[in-house]
């Protein structure tokens, strides 16, 4: 456990050294947040849609802008590159579980993002636009939901990167994943979709990454049901990643890697 704690601290320090990149990302988040807010206000300004009035729609946009960096919605291909180059063999020889080690580092990255990429966009959106504030008791549930979203996001990214064990070049899978997350995680609230599409999407892990924490924050639907749904997918993708890694290690041994 001490080794994983040190990896989390190293992840925090690593991303804290790139302050200019983080602030540039924050500026981009704010710019896109302004554009998305204008679209959402135009959509719900006349009358609420699916339970979203103007303050709730604004909260949806700015919470989403903050969560994007916290959960790292889009894929990080460093593991895939190490698999392609063969450097992953060194990682597998180290005295840790590779999946757990990468997750510990990701926790450190997410911890730094809380201060630079999650909280600031929410505060900016709240200062500029009408904003929905929840009851005080909602904040701990939102924090739990955000952590579960991070676990699901990491599990999905790990699975996407692990395809490089078989494909060597996983850029095609990564592209499909990035398009899917754009459409299913961030474009508009899932409540805006037709009922059949909502049922279909809630059967996938995508809504648990961005939509679920926002639903908990806005108290849309039973909060504990949303958290249980997130917990299910967090366990499912984590177990799937563990099984895929075990299979990949066997493949490496067969190949003489």
Compressed to H and E, one letter per element, the order equals: HHHHHHHHHHHH
Output the radius of gyration.
19 Å
Give the helix proportion (percent range): over 70%
What proportion strand? under 5%
- Give the helix tally: 12
Structure, described:
With 257 residues, this protein is mainly α. It has one domain (2-255). It is 77% helix and 0% strand. It contains twelve helices and no strands. It has helices spanning 2-16, 19-44, 54-71, 78-85, 88-93, 98-128, 138-162, 164-167, 171-186, 195-202, 211-218, 223-255. α2 runs antiparallel to α3 and α7 runs parallel beside α12 (223-255). The model has no long low-confidence stretch (mean pLDDT 88).
Brief summary:
By secondary structure, the chain is mainly alpha-helical.
Features:
12 helices; 257 residues; single chain; mainly alpha
How are the SSEs ordered, and which strands pair?
Blueprint: H1 2-16, H2 19-44, H3 54-71, H4 78-85, H5 88-93, H6 98-128, H7 138-162, H8 164-167, H9 171-186, H10 195-202, H11 211-218, H12 223-255
Helix pairs in contact: 1-6, 2-3, 2-6, 3-6, 4-7, 6-7, 7-11, 7-12, 11-12
